[in-house]
Specification:
Glucose Oxidase, domain 1, binds magnesium ion, binds phosphoenolpyruvate, 756 residues, alpha/beta, 8-stranded parallel sheet, Enzyme I, Chain A, domain 2, Beta-Lactamase, single chain, 4 domains
Length: 756
């Protein structure tokens, strides 16, 4: 491969382009000149600009080096060829041997077959691809990171030219009146439950960078300092708002964000960009583009979070520096905002007036993403990981966010809108009816009491134990607070958290599950290897037994938090009784230590075991001897039983929890617990669905732990149940060879007026 003389520095190149832009010529004439200047500056034989037109087509608008007659003739669809590839992924591409790339397509009219190397960058405008800028060389050469950056900066200038509307009518890409886009349904992952309907607001900050090359770097550095200072003050104000004043993990999230905001390395990089000749806003933008590029390649969820925070901050700075609007601030918003975003930072979300915010949909996002936790505090439905969201939704579209069914309806037809509005009304009415049930007991018509508890994972979930009238918290997943923190919480921090949980539960029992991390639930500050099958990997109790100090610290924190009150602890992913014994020994050692140190021990201590690894099913008699209580983790138990990944939508519903083998396994556990008089509960997702909960009660389960929103529907079902007839009926069907007993159970319930 040949070394190539580098062209003029980015500063001089930009200076020339700026002079051209300031001239009097038409936009097309400017573009024709610009490609020549870039080709010379980048020492490339070819420089071409493609602009996105209606119908997702990229049209060659100007070229130096390709045949002139191809201009306005050569067109590529987004995704077609290398240029289409750059537009589709909104990512730069640099290839020393372009023609061997699988996406390469040959356009004979351009005469480009003689060019071997290619480098292209997207022309981005308000977060959307507006075109592609490409250079090509005859020889096989590689392009340096600095050259790619110089092209990105140049593309920023071109974006302004495209936006001016002189090249392509800006309305061209908007759907014409009467030719509105069709309704679509998009699937995603529910990151916070609930349902909402509203008007799409694209989280696409309106920022336009007019000046890229600085006159005086000192002035720009001062502007940056002032903007950073202003942003900090603004964050103090935002984070101090009333809705967020309560305790909870969202406070940690906001603190972590604040740390990023004060990160000097990041600000220094912007300073370096300014010293290389950019204005403050162009410097922020350049560092932001680099971050975005790195972000798209990251798999580590913690780092992605940090980089998301930086994206949020970059936009804030840009807004200050350009006087543009950053998302929710200073914009005319509808009263029913459904925010549509690639991703959105926690502080950005708070820019939108919470009184108008109905829901949030994102292309990215995870349940422990910082924004999801803040959204939980604001109580709005959130759906994440919606593919191609940004391409499918336009501002002003009516959008339905149905987090209960993990789906989004965009531009639903009138009938669907009306139907959904009716669903919302019914939900509100049902919620009212459930609220009235809050203080009624969960007792069947024939007098059997069922204990209904909630699953929780954050401090801010705890108050729901009171608002729903649940008996307690049947599963507190302790790993979630660990996952949203920047560093491993020490004993004091853990004690404070568990104490807050117990205080807020106010005497209602809470079952703390020890850390279930590892595998796919990575802790950012803890080295672990995910392995090929994370669910079967080094996780949960396996880590705890190999690193007993972690478990001991957690137990110490729990004991101190209980401070003489009752305490329930259970271990996840126990595969054999010997493992339970070992875990219990670690716990006992810690108790002995506390006692020796004169600490206050819990008034009553219950140590339980989760039943979620099938091997344990063959040691039930020994297990019930030892454990104070059992809790079935049906999510894992069934995934391992049927060998189906619970996180893979393609197969996760292939086998039914209401199938004969699943129900018979669950029955065996119930019988073993009953024989030994051991309390038994089930805390997997199936307990949250009334029909499944009914079947569990029929099998002998007298305690369930479910999502808070399901307490009302499940209690209603319990109160309508005649357990005697159900139990007798279930005995007659369990030996069936059918795939599922769901329809039979449903028909039986309806025949008997059970409120499923
Ligand atoms: C389960 O496996 O059913 C369970 C409750 O635990 P988790 O969903 O946290 O794995
Ligand atoms: Mg589990």
């Amino acid at each position: 491969m040949q070394a190539v003389p580098t062209g003029v520095g980015p500063r001089r190149l930009l200076g020339r382009i700026r002079d051209l832009m300031a001239g009097e010529a038409t936009a097309q004439a400017k573009l024709d000149k610009v490609v020549q200047v870039i080709a010379a500056g980048m020492v490339a034989e070819v420089c071409s600009v493609y602009i996105l037109r209606a119908g997702e087509v990229l049209e060659l608008f100007a070229t130096k080096g390709l045949r002139r007659r191809a201009v306005h003739q050569t067109r590529l669809r987004v995704g077609e060829g290398l240029v289409g590839e750059i537009a589709a992924h909104a990512q730069p591409l640099a290839l020393s041997d372009a023609q061997s790339h699988p996406a390469f397509v040959y356009k004979p009219e351009t005469g480009e077959e003689i060019f071997r190397s290619l480098m292209g960058v997207p022309i981005l405008r308000s977060g959307r691809v507006a075109g592609v800028l490409v250079v090509q060389n005859k020889i096989e050469r590689s392009y340096s990171d600095e050259e790619i950056e110089a092209m990105q900066i140049t593309a920023m200038v071109l974006a302004e030219l495209v936006a001016s509307g002189d090249l392509v009518n800006p309305h061209e890409r908007a759907p014409a009146e009467g030719n509105a886009l069709l309704p679509v349904r998009l699937a995603g992952v529910a990151l916070n439950g609930g349902m909402a309907m509203g008007t799409a607001v694209l989280h696409r900050p309106d920022i336009s960078i007019r000046q890229i090359v600085a006159e005086d770097p000192e002035v720009e550095l001062r502007r940056l300092d002032e903007a950073v200072e202003e942003v900090h003050q603004n964050l103090d104000r935002l984070f101090g708002r009333g809705e967020l004043s309560g305790a909870g993990e969202h406070r940690d999230v906001l603190e972590a964000y604040r740390m990023v905001a004060s990160d000097s390395g990041w600000i220094r990089r912007i300073g370096d960009a300014i010293r290389s000749g950019l204005t403050a806003e162009a410097g922020v933008q350049q560092v932001r583009e680099n971050i975005r590029m790195r972000m798209s390649q990251l798999t580590d969820s913690y780092l992605r979070e940090r980089l998301d925070d930086m994206e949020d901050l970059s936009l804030r700075l840009l807004q200050r520096l350009t006087g543009g609007a950053n998302g929710g601030e200073a914009r005319d918003l509808p009263d029913d905002v459904v925010l549509v975003a690639r991703s959105v930072g926690p502080a950005e979300l708070l820019d939108y007036d919470p009184a108008r915010l109905r829901g949030l949909i994102m292309e990215r996002g995870s349940a422990t993403a910082h924004v999801s936790i803040v959204a939980r505090a604001l109580d709005i439905p959130v759906i994440g990981q919606v593919k191609d969201l940004f391409a499918k939704v336009d501002a002003g579209d009516t959008v339905i966010v149905d987090a209960e069914n993990r789906q989004v309806f965009v531009r639903p037809v009138e009938d669907v809108q009306q139907g959904f509005a009716e669903t919302l009304r019914l939900r509100a009415a049902r919620r009212q009816a459930f609220a009235q049930l809050r203080d009624q007991p969960a007792v069947t018509l024939d007098g059997t009491q069922v204990s209904l508890n909630i699953n929780a994972g954050l401090e801010l979930d705890v108050p729901q134990v009171h608002s729903t009238g649940a008996d307690g918290i049947g599963l507190f997943r302790t790993e979630i607070p660990f996952m949203v923190r920047a560093a491993y919480p020490d004993v004091e921090a853990q004690t404070a958290l568990y104490r807050a949980v117990l205080d807020q539960a106010d005497g209602k029992p809470v079952v703390f599950r020890t850390l279930d991390v590892g595998g796919d639930k990575e802790l950012p500050y803890f080295e672990s290897e995910a392995g090929e099958n994370p669910a079967l990997g080094w996780r949960a109790i396996r880590i705890a037994l190999d690193r007993p100090a972690m478990l001991r610290q957690q137990v110490r924190a729990l004991v101190r938090a209980a401070d003489g009150r009752s305490l329930s602890v259970m271990f996840p992913m126990i595969a054999e009784v010997a493992e339970y014994d070992l875990a219990r020994q670690v716990l006992d050692m810690e108790l002995a230590r506390e006692k020796a140190k004169g600490g206050t021990l819990p008034r009553k201590l219950s140590v339980g075991c989760m039943v979620e690894v099938p091997a344990l099913l063959w040691q039930l008699p020994a297990l019930v001897e030892r454990a104070d209580f059992l809790s079935v983790g049906s999510n894992d138990l069934l995934q391992f039983l049927f060998a189906t990944d619970r996180g893979n939508p393609r197969i996760s519903e292939r086998y039914d929890p209401l199938s004969p083998p699943a129900l018979k396994v669950l029955l065996d556990v119930a019988k073993a617990a009953d024989r030994a008089g051991r309390p038994l509960s089930l805390c997997g997702e199936m307990a949250s669905r009334p029909l499944e909960a009914m079947a569990l009660i029929g099998l002998g389960y007298r305690s369930l732990s479910l999502t808070a929103a399901s307490i009302g529907p499940v209690k209603t079902m319990v109160r309508s149940l005649r357990l005697g007839v159900l139990r007798a009926y279930m005995q007659t069907i369990l030996d069936s060879r059918e795939h599922s007993l769901r329809e039979r159970l449903r028909a039986f319930a309806l025949d008997h007026d059970f409120a499923i």
